[in-house]
Amino acid sequence: MSLLLGLALLFAGPADAASVLRELEEAGKSLRTMQAGFAETKVLVLLDEKSEAKGTVLLEVPGRFRWNYESPQPSVTLVKDGRFARYLPRAKQVFRGAARGEADLLVGFGPGAAGLGKKYQVTLVGEEAVGGAGAWVLDLKPQPAQANAALFAEIRLWVDKGRHFPVQTRLTEPTGDHTTVRFLEVKLNARLPAAAFELALPKDVVEVK
Q1: In this predicted structure, what is the pLDDT of residue 101?
Q2: What DSSP line would sit under 67-116, residue for residue?
């Protein structure tokens, strides 16, 4: 009976939010790069509008990532060295500024996973299947001391049970508007292109700050 009990405990998986956070943190320590496809859904509650976008995302630890939007309109959002650039090829415009909320789209990846319990009140909601695989569902709400400065009232993470990284993220604004990003065909620690975090801009691009 003791052997059966031991096996049951071994495969039971995490029973609380702290256990899931520890797994996220441990997985984050070994993360160097990530590349994936993504499907993004934005919902504007008051306007009763929903929009969808698709593309690819590249991440390099620490602090570099790139969103290549392919539809409905091509664009690139690049974050590097604490700054962001958003390039709209059709308009021939590039917007630049200090990075802020852009990083939350990749919350839970890499070293940043280690500080989630300090920044947020974390609750384990349950478990769901995402893309046919089991995932723990965590709700993250800003700690009271940081609530006024937070861009989002709540973040929900779906954490893959086997590989211990987020497979889906939902960011909810104070207005109730929310953005859900699902990561597809995720590759961890693969070599990225040499110019992954450089923007090739045309000479006639207009810079907006």
Answers
A1: 63
A2: EEEEESS-EEEEEETTEEEEEETTTTEEEEEE--GGGGGGTTSGGGGGGH
Cα–Cα distance between 106 and 123 in angstroms, integer?
Answer: 19
Between CA 121 and CA 129 the distance in angstroms is 24
3-state secondary structure of 78: strand
Domain count, the chain: 1
CATH number, domain with residue 146: 2.50.20.10
How far is it, in rounded angstroms, from Cα 39 to Cα 166? 14
Has residue 179 been placed in a domain? yes
Question: Mind listing the pLDDT tens digit for each residue in 20-44?
Answer: 999 999 998 899 999 999 999 999 9
Identity at 172, one-letter amino acid code = T
Q: Which residues of the chain have pLDDT under 50?
A: 1-12
Can you give the pTM of this predicted structure?
0.85
